[in-house]
Write a structure and sequence with these properties.
It is built from 2 helices and 11 strands, in the order E-E-E-E-E-H-E-E-E-E-E-E-H. The chain has about 140 residues and is mainly beta. The chain has a 6-stranded mixed β-sheet, with no helix packed on it. A 5-stranded mixed β-sheet has the order 3-6-7-5-4. It starts with 6 loop residues before the first strand and ends with a helix. The relative contact order is 0.23.
Length: about 140
């Protein structure tokens, strides 16, 4: 897939919109039973089995220090090549193509890459590489 045909997964956290490059996402699903991860940071909600692979689950609102993010309804599972990781989010809004958005400078927030202006409102695209690296560092500190 070329950049010209890039798509984004738009999701919500505490009333704000965020985005991930769709190529980084393996699957979106409903909440599933999870097992606790001993000694993990508070943002880790547990682990789940995803097609036979164990995946750590992060409450993304807690990880990003977004207040009021205690109402997750969906799980976004990343591609295994990126990390054995999934994010709890409030809801998934839609998948949108790059042609349907305009890009602008991101806000001065952690992990923000670019601001996407969509028909649903402004969405912050997250820097997934930096986010995964910070999650790994957080686990190593514990």
């Amino acid at each position: 897939m070329t950049d010209h045909h890039r798509k984004f997964l738009i999701f919500s956290l505490s009333g704000s919109l965020y985005a991930l490059d769709l190529e980084q996402v393996a699957e979106v699903g409903d909440l599933q039973p999870m097992w606790p991860i001993p000694f993990a940071p508070a943002c880790y909600s547990g682990a789940l089995s995803f097609h036979g692979n164990i995946v750590a689950v992060i409450n993304l609102a807690t990880f990003l220090s977004i207040p009021g993010g205690n109402n997750p309804g969906k799980v976004i599972v990343l591609h295994q090549e990126i990390a054995s990781l999934a994010f709890l989010v409030d809801s998934v809004v839609r998948i949108i193509s790059e042609e349907e958005v305009s890009l602008s400078k991101p806000p001065d927030k952690s992990f923000a890459v670019v601001m996407l202006r969509t028909p649903d409102g402004e969405a912050i695209q997250l820097d997934l590489d930096a986010l995964v690296l910070e999650a790994e560092i957080g686990m190593q500190k514990k």
